Amino acid sequence: MRKSGSKSGFTLIEVMVVTAVIAVLVGLFLPAMGRARGASKLAISLSNLRQSAVAAATYAADFDDRIYALSSAPNSRWPELRPGGSALRDAAKHAIDIIRRRTGREDFPVPSHWIPNVLYTHLVLNDYLGQNLPDRMVVSPEDEHRLNWQIDPINLHDQGAWQPFQNPESGPVPGSQFRWPYSSSYQVVVASYDGNQSRWNGNLPRISPATHNSYFVPTVPLGGLRMSSVTFPGSKVHVHDSEGRHTGPVNRYYAHERAKVVLHMFDGSASFRLTRHANIGWNPVQPRRVVIRPFVSYRPRSWEAPILDLRADGRTFGYYRWTRGGLKGIDFGGNEINTGQ
């Protein structure tokens, strides 16, 4: 009992008890808040993929059952972007035509030695939906580098504001440094634009992996495939995140067997799946060979997921990006299809 007239206040013990209680409460609530933020970002990413799936379906309905793909821009208002040259060069012109129209950057150059289909096929949907570029629908909320690149491509990205987590090609290849803010976290599978991936003749030239985002592209038709060519639409991946981003503090390359990745199937369903539950894929230049060794080499750039516990050289299976049988194959929910190759 306090003496009459004594000063009121907290004793040291009382302050220590209150501090300890606050510390316990913070320890309890911070992880919960972190999980809530993580769940929110996962929900956004799944929403992005669902929007992509709906847009892909409506695009096919409007364009004679076609799977959206970069191919050519025959009606471009810029003569230098009209078809003429290889299929790959025409696809690059198509991508730049969309970027020019959707950004207002009418002098945007066409990068040389560029495979736009890998990280820029989504531009076809952006254009179909009438979206200005860059658009956040194509970027994972966990992809902080691309989100930064999108903030102000001209006054920040193009001036190198995000180095060293920017692009490695600034300088030697004209135009390369400007395109990255319009790239996507999500990638379409190669069979959706390589016209030979789903054909049974084992002697056909096909796009095949060089490194994780660099491909060998022979003379093959690009684009023009139909949704009806997909034999198992609920089991074949159409679009997937390039990394597993929602399961911990460190991202994993999508083809790491412990990666868990957001993706959508050709039937339009979006989900969050472990890569190791998928079939391991094939090497398109050795179609008769059952893959018993890694064939995709992962060489991460400064902004990409680390190799972690992959082999020292980052080699791994291709999984659903390189499905045995292409559009006629199965990624989840069944064994690989014997393509007869």
Quick structural gist:
It is built from six helices and ten strands, in the order H-H-H-H-H-H-E-E-E-E-E-E-E-E-E-E. It has 341 residues and is an alpha+beta fold.
Give the % helix.
25-40%
End-to-end distance, in Å? 91 Å
Q: How many structural domains? A: 1
C-alpha-based Rg, rounded: 24 Å
Largest sheet: 4 strands, antiparallel
What is the 3D form? globular
Instruction: Tally the helices.
Output: 6
**Average pLDDT across residues?**
87
Largest sheet: spatial strand order: 1-4-7-8
Unreliable stretches: none
Q: Indicate the proportion of strand residues.
A: 5-15%
Q: Tell me the series of helices and strands, N- to C-terminal.
A: HHHHHHEEEEEEEEEE
Q: Structural class, please?
A: alpha+beta
